[in-house]
Specification:
Structural class: mainly alpha
Subcellular location: Cell membrane
Organism: Anoxybacter fermentans
Number of strands: 4
Shape: globular
Family: Belongs to the nucleobase:cation symporter-2 (NCS2) (TC 2.A.40) family.
Order of helices and strands: HHHEHHHHHHHHHHHEHHHHHEEH
InterPro entries: NCS2 (IPR006043), Xan_ur_permease (IPR006042)
Strand content: under 5%
Number of helices: 20
GO cellular component, one term: plasma membrane
Helix content: 55-70%
Length: 412
């Protein structure tokens, strides 16, 4: 069955008709982009990798249901919750107490979604004008830059082949080939890694063909809840930044704030997080890696993200498949990540240019400068068990400065 061109014309420019196999390939591309980060969080915290993949998949599908299938976002494991989840698991000896905190964190999202629904999306738009959102989107890409470099530097030859292949396909590719540069970059990088002896198939041989993830039952402990749930207040700022980044990437600007509405995206993210807590997975969040793929391919149809979600669910119940993908060496992924994270940063620059943000004005220059330095510099603010850092702290600093600095600052 083919997707009608008129349905996709607004979301996939200059593509024409896409058959099912092509849509599946695009979905696989997004699944590969999210895989490394999604499984890293459970590895670092002690949660189950299979459950993390499963909850990322069903969480993404739930998000698309709540947002009317309008936002091309993929939800994966959130890094913001790593520290408190690790502490709770260490203190209580299993993941059950952490699950209760994750469920409540998701409900905090839902409460904030209700508040925004009542006051209107204009409230969020006033908090995040282009002079704030542009630098925040840049920070999203720049703070991830060291991650890409650390992966790539393990073997610059392999990383370079992966990066160069994806770049050449993006520039010189024609037709459908142009839409899957990540797939080609990963394949060529993987072949180079095989030649260099960087691939180990041991984990594939030891994995089963089929098997359900190890789901666990949540427990509600107030001490654990108070350690984990408040992080939702920080991750919500990141969520708004990610949605604005997706909107800017797609060319819809700030349209998603009102249609389907930031209250729906927050609710979708929150309920996906609570659902993850019920099964024993980490909290979910919108993924910058997949936003980078959007910017690179210009394929914006949300159906592709839902296909990627189905791949994640498949990988969770076919351990051998997820094990095979896990054999992709870090330099291969690092080469692609350099391109993807750079794309996100470029979207932030474009946001400021298209909205005519005048950096000759002292007020705008101060706001942008503070956001960039706090975000890229890794500044942290600790309030008891709550740590605000990175993009969240940069975003909060930007919205505060936007409110307190007078419009005519520095003007005679």
């Amino acid at each position: 069955m083919e997707v009608r061109n008129e349905v996709l014309s607004k979301e996939i420019p200059n593509v024409g008709k896409l058959s099912k196999p092509k849509l599946v390939t695009l979905g696989l591309q997004h699944a590969m982009a999210m895989f490394g980060a999604t499984v890293l969080v459970p590895i670092l915290t002690g949660l189950n990798v299979g459950v993390a993949l499963f909850t990322a998949g069903i969480g993404t599908l739930l998000f698309h249901l709540i947002t009317k299938g309008k936002v091309p976002a993929y939800l994966g494991s959130s890094f913001a919750f790593i520290a408190p989840i690790t502490l709770v698991i260490k203190e209580y000896g299993d993941v059950s107490a952490a699950q209760g905190g994750i469920i409540i964190a998701g409900l905090i999202y839902a409460i904030m979604a209700l508040i925004i629904y009542l006051v209107g999306p204009e409230f969020v738009e006033r908090l995040f004008p282009p002079v704030v959102t542009g630098p925040v989107i840049m920070v999203i890409g720049l703070v991830l830059a060291p991650v890409a470099i650390n992966m790539a530097k393990e073997n610059w030859l392999v990383a370079g082949i992966s990066l160069l292949t994806a770049a050449l396909i993006t520039v010189f590719g024609r037709g459908f080939v142009k839409l899957v540069p990540v797939i080609f970059g990963l394949v060529c990088g993987y072949i180079a890694a095989l030649i260099c002896g960087l691939v180990d198939f041991t984990v594939v041989k030891e994995s089963a063909w089929l098997g359900l993830p190890e789901f666990t039952v949540p427990k509600f402990n107030w001490s654990a809840i108070l350690m984990i749930a408040p992080v939702a207040l920080v991750s919500m700022v990141e969520h708004v930044g990610d949605i604005l980044a997706i909107g800017a990437t797609v060319g819809k600007g700030r349209e998603y704030l009102s249609d389907p509405g930031i209250h729906r995206t927050l609710l979708g993210d929150g309920l996906a997080t609570s659902l993850a807590g019920i099964f024993g997975g980490p909290p979910n969040t919108t993924y910058s890696e997949n936003t980078g793929v959007l910017a690179l391919t210009k394929v914006y149809n949300p159906i592709v993200m839902r296909i990627a979600a189905c791949f994640a669910i498949m990988m969770s119940i076919i351990p051998k498949l997820s094990a095979l993908i896990s054999t992709i060496p870090q330099p291969v992924v690092g080469g692609i990540a350099i391109l993807l994270f750079g794309m996100i940063t470029s979207v932030g620059i474009r946001t400021m240019v298209e909205n005519n943000v005048d950096l000759t004005k002292a007020r705008n220059l101060i706001i942008a400068s503070v956001i960039l330095v706090i975000g890229i510099g890794g500044a942290e603010l600790k309030i008891r068990n709550l740590t605000i850092a990175g993009m969240a702290l940069a975003g909060i600093a930007g919205l505060i400065l936007n409110k307190i600095l007078p419009e005519n600052l520095g003007e005679e």
